[in-house]
Amino acid sequence: MSEQNKEGLPTEAELAEMDRDQLLKLGGKLDDVELVEYTDPWPVKGTKAEKRAERAVAAWFTLAGLSGLAFIGVFLWWPWHYAPANTDGHVLYLLYTPLLGLTLGLSILGVGVGVVMYAKKFLPHEVAVQQRHEGRSTELDRQTFVAHMADAGDRSTIARRSIIKRSALFGAGAFGLATAALPLGSLIHNPHKDSTNENGLWHTGWLAHDGERVFLRRDTGDAHALELVKPEDLDAGSMETVFPFHAPKSASGGVDYAKLDGMLAGTERVDEHELVEALRRSDNPVMLIRLRPEDAKRVVKHQGQEDFNFGDYYAYTKICSHLGCPTSLYEQRTNRILCPCHQSQFDALQYAKPIFGPATRKLAQLPIEVDEVTGYLYARHDFNEAVGPAFWERKS
Ligand code: FES
Where does it live in the cell (predicted)? Predict the structure, then answer.
């Protein structure tokens, strides 16, 4: 006789012969499990209440599935491009993010409530108390445990509830697709596709094409208004947000000043699309800062950018080098530029290097100059360093 038999346990052959109920009972006995309660939630099959519970579970899974599909639809086809206020599509643009949140949230809610409701309504109500044993479970324990789980599955009646199975599959499938759409979408999208050249991520709207001049355009709050900035427009110790404006070119290749004057006076047509696009591009906004004369004397310039300022005027990107929030706050007394998102601070007197908070890189500086004919400020060339937080091809 084996040692197992000596202890009153079945031999391997006897174990193989046992059915699930016998294994269940044996497992409970061996594990010192006391079943306080183990009741079938639906002792009478096919009642109206049971059907109602079944439909309720299916309804939640269906909601999860429809919401997941809606999320994918919004993610792929909703007009998400920035549309400024008072333009067509502004309301649709504003709805994009809330709709993504709403549909994905409903999908998660549907799967969660469906699973919880199914467990409460259809799994056997079991209350058991078991002493905890140390070490790895024996083969016997493992087999009885598997039998127990299979029994719970059978008693949950999932096998014959096709409406719940189908709706759960639909809900979980659509939810899975919706969550996969985000990382897959960003892998499929080609970041260079809409760029004007193959290194589009390295350039901003301040890039001048074929010798054109890019002026500093005032942010008036009206996407269609064109106002350029002269040095005397800013008081000492003040800051203004500016965007790029690509001046019209003359036949000889320089600035067409007559046309530019007409545009500013409203007598020449301005390309409305270009005006709006300049506000759209996320790496375009720039802070134009005029330092107080006494502060300007203490400026420390960055190597290679010694001539990027024009007198007391310094232009830094508004895009925080930490996570890309707009660093819109300039504190005149301390000459600090503040990012409201995570409280990074940059020193405007030291090439906007970070001096507090999580940001580790300086704000990119735009080289500026005054146009000799009109007196308006313009960018001598695009940024020569990365703007904002890292992207995957960045080397600095
Ligand atoms: S985005 Fe500016 S501190 Fe985080």
Answer: Cell membrane
If one residue of 282, 283, 321, 322 were mutated to test the ligand 1 pocket, choosing by the most ligand atoms within 8 A of its CB, it would be 322
Residue 73: HSE in the Cβ half-sphere, 13 Å Cα cutoff: 10
pLDDT for 199 equals: 55
pLDDT at 391: 64
Residues 243, 219: contact at Cβ < 8 Å? yes
The CA 327 to ligand 1 mean position distance, Å, reads: 8
All structural domains of the chain: 3-188 (no CATH), 214-379 (2.102.10.10)
Structure tokens, 22: 């016998």
Pocket test for ligand 1, best of 320, 336, 387 (most atoms within 8 A of CB): 320
| Nearest ligand 1 atom, CA 358 | 3
Residue 93 to residue 114: CA distance in whole angstroms: 32
**How far away, in angstroms, is 389 Cα from ligand 1 center?**
9
Q: What's the pLDDT at 13?
A: 87
Structure tokens at 232: 């005397």
Ligand 1 nearest atom to the CA of residue 342, by list position: 3
CA of 385 to the centre of ligand 1 (A): 18
240 CA distance to ligand 1 centroid (A)? 20
- Token pair in block for residue 201: 């991520």
Kindly tell me if the per-residue pLDDT of 393 is higher than 60. no
CB atoms within 10 A of CB 261: 12
What is the distance between the alpha carbons of residues 236 and 293, in angstroms, rounded to a whole number? 7
Confidence of residue 128 (pLDDT cuts 50, 70, 90): confident
Confidence of residue 209 (pLDDT cuts 50, 70, 90): confident
Backbone angles phi, psi at 59, to 5 degrees: -65, -40
Give ligand 1 pocket residues (Cβ under 6 A): 320, 322-325, 339, 341-342, 344, 357-359
CA of 389, closest atom in ligand 1: 1
E-strand spans in the chain? 34-39, 125-129, 214-218, 238-246, 286-290, 313-317, 329-331, 336-338, 345-347, 353-356, 365-366, 368-370, 377-379
Task: Say if residue 172's pLDDT is above 80.
Answer: yes
The pTM assigned to this predicted structure is 0.59
Closest residue by Cα to atom 4, ligand 1, is: 342
According to the model, what pLDDT value does residue 182 have? 79
